[in-house]
């Protein structure tokens, strides 16, 4: 859509109608933050009561309605649409309405919201390195990686801040809304989400290199190829285990794997169909996996769109199993066990001390998940969106999306608050990390 808006800046008007699935997404304040986060330049209607959805007889997300210059609906498309198909259709419409004299070429006013004037802008993920006294922060909307000490003193900045795909030294390289990271010695791997790429940061040499992805969004759901020739689709989080890089490929509802020795990359689990279907790795269905971790035997992932936490065996003959979560349209905020548990679009996940911790993002909480018991319990947050430090049950977050552990503390990427929060594992006392030198 962004490419089309730029190409047809004086011919195409886009109006976003936000008919929310999740309760958290119906709040106008949260919609406005999402508009800022995704840097939308077109107006967005909050259709929280589904009035416009019903008037246009919509049945699917997304639904595209095509309207001619006179205001008549001339077409409808349900589901995703490739840029090529979209571009062909718009170019035909432009030619037709130019020929009959109805097309208005005056440009639309831009509604672009500048990034937040804060040291961090919508930080998506965080990675704590206890032995190295380092904290790696995906400063997502500033298109960079910020490295501090665990108490917030700036060490390094990786990336120029420019929204681009550029390899080179730490200062001149560039990213496009990076998210998940994993550390292997002095090598940091980064899921460069909107570049649809995996980047390797050599912290000792001070260089950034693209190891997978072409920079173009891909839709292939099968086959394995060398990383630099394979198109990826919104890689969101990473995990390194015994020489293999596992990728939560949110855009096409799969987990992928990359052999770090030969550079070959491709699907590991999931057909690409969007659902919550357990079974063998190759036939299971996932829904927008956005976080991944491991206990050394299984992969665990936050399957965000099904509001679930699921596992995948590392053994390639293994299976995908659901720990908690039920369906694409079953969600809420309920602690407990088995089918009683309700989450709302969890994004972050990490394994620590035998259990899982997740950011239950749209519930504005951190929760503990016990895989063997298939249970989930609130650890931090009172469920209201806000920015309040203090005791665990009184603290408030705003769509936290990343979590990591080091030195008896948990570090949380509190995305909509543009902050990193720190909580004692034992005390549960929450504070906001003050970053100095940035």
Number of strands: 32
CATH C-level class of the largest domain is Mainly Beta
Main sheet properties: 5 strands, antiparallel
- Estimated radius of gyration: 22 Å
> What is the name of the CATH architecture of the largest domain?
6 Propeller
| Overall form | globular
Total count of helical runs of at least 4 residues: 4
Summed up, the domain count is 2
Annotated CATH homologous superfamily of the largest domain: TolB, C-terminal domain
Question: Which fold does the CATH topology of the largest domain refer to?
Answer: Neuraminidase
Descriptive account of the structure:
The protein is mostly beta strands. It has two domains: 2-99, Glutaredoxin, CATH 3.40.30.10; 126-432, TolB, C-terminal domain (Neuraminidase), CATH 2.120.10. It has four helices and 32 strands. The protein has helices at 2-7, 28-37, 51-55, 83-99, and strands at 16-18, 44-46, 63-67, 73-78, 126-129, 134-139, 144-148, 154-158, 168-169, 178-184, 187-192, 197-202, 207-212, 225-226, 235-241, 244-249, 254-259, 264-269, 279-280, 289-294, 298-303, 308-313, 319-324, 336-337, 348-352, 355-360, 365-370, 375-380, 400-406, 409-414, 419-424, 430-432. The strands form eight sheets. The protein has a five-stranded antiparallel β-sheet, with no helix packed on it. Strands 14-18-17-16-15 form a five-stranded antiparallel β-sheet, with no helix packed on it. It has a five-stranded antiparallel β-sheet with strand order 19-23-22-21-20, with no helix packed on it. Strand 15 and strand 16 (244-249) form a beta hairpin. The model has no long low-confidence stretch (mean pLDDT 95).
């Amino acid at each position: 859509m962004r490419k089309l808006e730029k190409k047809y800046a004086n011919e195409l008007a886009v109006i976003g109608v936000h008919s929310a699935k999740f309760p958290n997404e119906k709040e106008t304040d949260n919609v406005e933050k999402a508009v800022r986060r995704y840097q939308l330049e077109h107006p967005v209607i909050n259709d929280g009561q589904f009035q416009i959805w019903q008037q246009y007889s919509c049945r699917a997300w997304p639904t595209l309605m095509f309207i001619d210059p006179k205001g008549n609906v001339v077409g409808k498309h349900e589901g995703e649409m490739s840029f090529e198909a979209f571009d062909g259709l718009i170019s035909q419409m432009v030619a037709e309405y130019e020929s009959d004299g109805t097309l208005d070429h005056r440009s639309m006013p831009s509604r672009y919201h500048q990034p937040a004037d804060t040291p961090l802008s919508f930080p998506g993920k965080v990675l704590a390195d206890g032995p190295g006294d380092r904290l790696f922060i995906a400063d997502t909307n500033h298109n960079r990686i910020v490295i501090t000490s665990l108490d917030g003193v700036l060490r390094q900045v990786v990336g120029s801040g420019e929204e681009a795909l550029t390899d080179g030294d730490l200062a001149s390289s560039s990213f496009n809304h990076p998210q998940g990271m994993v550390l292997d010695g002095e090598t940091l791997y980064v899921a460069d989400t909107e570049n649809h790429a995996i980047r390797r940061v050599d912290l000792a040499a001070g260089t950034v290199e693209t190891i997978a992805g072409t920079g173009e969004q891909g839709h292939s759901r099968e086959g394995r190829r060398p990383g630099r020739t394979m198109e990826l689709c919104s890689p969101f989080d990473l995990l390194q285990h015994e020489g293999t890089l596992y990728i939560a490929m949110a855009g096409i509802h799969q987990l992928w794997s990359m052999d770090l020795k030969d550079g070959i990359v491709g699907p590991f689990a999931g057909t690409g169909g969007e659902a919550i279907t357990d079974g063998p790795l190759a036939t299971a269905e996932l829904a927008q996996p956005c976080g991944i971790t491991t206990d050394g035997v299984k992969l665990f992932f936050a399957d965000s769109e099904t509001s679930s936490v699921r596992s995948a065996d590392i053994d390639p003959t293994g299976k995908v199993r659901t720990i908690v979560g039920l369906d694409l349209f079953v969600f809420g905020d309920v602690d407990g066990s088995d089918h009683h548990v309700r989450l709302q679009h969890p994004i972050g996940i990490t394994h620590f001390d035998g259990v899982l911790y997740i950011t239950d993002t749209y519930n504005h909480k951190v929760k503990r998940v016990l895989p063997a018991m298939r249970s989930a319990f609130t650890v931090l947050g009172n469920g209201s969106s806000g920015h309040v430090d203090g005791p665990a049950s009184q603290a408030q977050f705003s769509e936290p999306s990343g979590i990591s552990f080091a030195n008896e503390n948990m570090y949380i990427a509190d995305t909509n608050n543009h902050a990193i929060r720190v909580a004692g594992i034992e005390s549960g006392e929450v504070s906001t990390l003050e970053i100095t030198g940035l």
